[in-house]
TrEMBL record:
Pfam families: NLPC_P60 (PF00877). Residues 60-90 are annotated as: Disordered. The lineage of its organism: Bacteria, Pseudomonadati, Bacteroidota, Cytophagia, Cytophagales. GO terms for biological process: proteolysis. The keyword Hydrolase applies. GO terms for molecular function: cysteine-type peptidase activity. Residues 98-225 form the NlpC/P60 domain. Transmembrane segments: none annotated. This is Cell wall-associated hydrolase, NlpC family. Gene3D superfamilies: endopeptidase domain like (from Nostoc punctiforme) (3.90.1720.10).
Amino acid sequence: MQEYSTKVSYSAWWRQWALPVLVLLALSALPGCNAGKVNYRNGRYHSARDVARMKAAERARGRGRAPVTVKTKSKTAAGRTKMVSRRPGASPIAANVPAPIAEVIETARSYQGTPYRYGGTTRLGMDCSGLLYESFAAIKVSIPRSSNEQAQWGEPVKPQNLQPGDLVFFGASPGSSTITHVGMVTVATPESVQFIHSSSSLGVIENALETDYYLSRFIKAVRPRL
């Protein structure tokens, strides 16, 4: 009688505790339902390159959401430092901007989110001078391919006279006189100057010229010959 009772107790313990634990352990060892399907979207398989492009497009669309106001430092004519409130992302093109320049700016903005690639001129990858080369091609204007040559393609402009469409050039380090980078002004107001460029770390993006980083590396600006 005692032996039968022990067997019954052991059987009940197995069903109530041991068996469920073993089942859970076995299930946890199985691959998840999405294993091996990281490139599946909307029920279709996409290559890693396609997924990268879709993610870039999603980031670009995300910039169109309600932006958050941020503050950047700016220097006044008297040399004082002030805080400038601005909203990241694309600002509307001013109504007085000539139609050809507006089209160039819109073309450049269409590349936002494209990753940086040295020598690149496509949506898979683009460098700074390649962005401007392709953007001006939209109005059938052929400009030099390199940033150094682009710096000679236009009339010099003082920073306080910048307008949308002007090209701005930078060095690799503060105080450098060797041009290594170029961007194009998209918005110019008394409060802020925005320019679009292909950053080696962030890809095609718009930034404020008045930030310390870009002001310290700024070399010159030119107004394109159209």
